[in-house]
Amino acid sequence: MIQRSMRIRTNLRPLRPPNIRSNPPLRSFTRPTALLRLSALSTRPQLPYLAPPAQCATPGQWQLARLMTTEKERLFRKTAWDFTTALGAVLVLLPTGIMLLWWISHELLERDIPTPHEWTFRSRCYWHHIKALQDRSVTQGRLPDWTIIVQTLQLLLKRLEDLNFDGQGLTLNSHTQQQALGEHYLDLDISRVFDISGKPEPWRRGYFQVMLEFAKAAEASEHMVYDKKSKSFFMAESVIGPSNPDPTPLHSAVNKAPPLEENCVPLSPSAESFYEKILATRGLNDDQQVETLLSYSEWLDSQERHDHAESLLRKALQISASALPNSSAIINSQTGVIQGKAPFVTQNLLDSATALGIHLAQNAKTSAALSIFLSVLQAYRSCPRDLSHDGRPHLSYSGTIPADVLMAGLREKFSRLLSDVEYPPPPPSRNLPLVRRGDEGCKEAAAIIYASELLFATSSSRQDTALKWIKEALETAEDQVSDTSNSMDDRWRCNQCIPVALDAWWDMIQQLKAEAESPPQQPGYLTSLIRKPKKDLASTWRREESEHWDWVRKAGRDNWEEKMSFEQWKMWSWMPMSTLTRVL
């Protein structure tokens, strides 16, 4: 019995095989066709409702595992591939489309605002940005942001004068101006004056335009300062300091403290420094020098420096007269009066004489100014007329554009878009004999306004003539504004003559009204022969006032300014994105 109990008992259950790394092959009838791809493989059949996972799963993990089956794996892969392809296409096509639109906008701007081919691409973009910020269709009647314009002009001028970029071949002028410019915000050395005679003509013309634009921007921003503490720009009238005892409070939308005078510097150097630099630059022609002198003298008059302004005007008149073969037979260099029997006149001569007349009128020298304006007006009317200009067709907008005309215009624009932009040739010299074209009508209207004001103020016997001339100036200005054959700049410039003429006409009416309502005085014999009776004055000012209000209503009804804005917008309406990207 003892031996039998010592024997090993037979195991009723078979021994399990040892654990091995590789799973044994599974029988197909024990597994479903749709395998759970996210669950661990097991040798036993998987019944989810009977055999829950050993470890605790997070919420939603089991549901996700049930979805990832072999049947849906191909769908997930296709969806992921399509998403990746679409994302890659967007990442490639979106920058390409943006660059294409930007290139189209740049080409359109290059056609509207041409730049010299010698300039680099960045310099061209700077000039486009500057001109776009001053475009009336972009600003929509608002004042330009001169802070951005001045800073962009600084970047452009530094590139043009950099010998490593656009200024290759420039030489420093021996007559470099030495002047104390004072501290200012811009990092720009304008004391260097160059000799640009070795550069091509388009480069010289573009450089002159940049310098003159910088001088005018300095005029417009002379009342702006930069606060070094808050790093912001303010108007000088808001600065708190000894030089401004009554500062203007800041606008409620400005969430900044008023600047202190010790922390502020001017935005840019004075306009005088830029004008002096232009005049000292070698390589400019007579037209550019005369234009600079006239702009410089106008700024000096605004600064109450009348003596210096008159000397510059005399110099401009001298330069204009030096181009004439026999100047003494055309103009009196002392008085600025153009001879009545002058064989011809030049545009520089007329511009210089007109500017001198305005300067004399502002300084109470009305007799000398009236003589100049009358001679200028006579010179304009005696100029020969260019018949080829009058024969050009005048375009008008009828409200609807035929489809074939519209498609032809689009094809022409796209063909021009693919062609190179040619920089416009230099304009004809203003020292040539003047031929009367349509664009001279605006300057003639301005001369008529000046002459009529002075004639009305200096001669009571010729007041009717002055009133007649002011109406003639209004009609001339209206014709020039309505003439679509003139350039947009000429029409905008002549549009400013209309309110000026209306204001001058109203001042004349008020003076007639005051004389008619003044108490009667015992006039002398000569005075009674010259001066009108009270009844005639009363009827005159009532008639003139009625005509004046008719013109005012006509100006408000026609609204030439909005009409021209619509025509300029119409040119861009076929491609709205170009208008949105005009500001780079």
Structural description of this entry:
The chain crosses the membrane at residues 80-104. Keywords: Membrane, Transmembrane, Transmembrane helix. 55% of the residues lie in helices and 3% in strands. The protein has 584 residues and is mainly α. It has a domain at 438-576. It has a three-stranded antiparallel sheet, with no helix packed on it. A two-stranded antiparallel ribbon has the order 1-2. A hairpin with a 4-residue loop joins strand 3 and strand 4 (232-235). The radius of gyration is 40 Å and the shape is elongated. The chain starts with a helix and ends with a helix. The model is unreliable at 390-399, 524-530 and 560-584 (pLDDT under 50).
What oligomeric state do the depicted chains represent? single chain
User: How helix-rich are the residues, as a percent range?
Assistant: 40-55%
Give me the secondary-structure category: mainly alpha
Give the overall average pLDDT: 77
Q: Give the overall silhouette.
A: elongated
Helix-strand string: HHHHHHEEHEEEHHHHHHHHHHHHHHH
* Separation of the first and last Cα atoms: 110 Å
Report the C-alpha radius of gyration, rounded: 40 Å
Q: What share of residues are in beta strands?
A: under 5%
Strand count, sense and barrel status of the largest sheet are: 3 strands, antiparallel
Topology summary:
Layout: H1 2-5, H2 61-67, H3 70-112, H4 121-133, H5 136-139, H6 146-160, E1 171-172, E2 194-195, H7 201-220, E3 224-227, E4 232-235, E5 264-266, H8 271-280, H9 286-302, H10 306-322, H11 347-362, H12 366-382, H13 387-390, H14 403-418, H15 440-458, H16 463-482, H17 488-495, H18 497-517, H19 525-530, H20 534-558, H21 560-572, H22 576-580
Helix pairs in contact: 4-6, 6-7, 7-8, 8-9, 9-10, 9-11, 10-11, 11-12, 12-15, 15-16, 15-17, 15-18, 16-17, 16-18, 17-21, 18-20
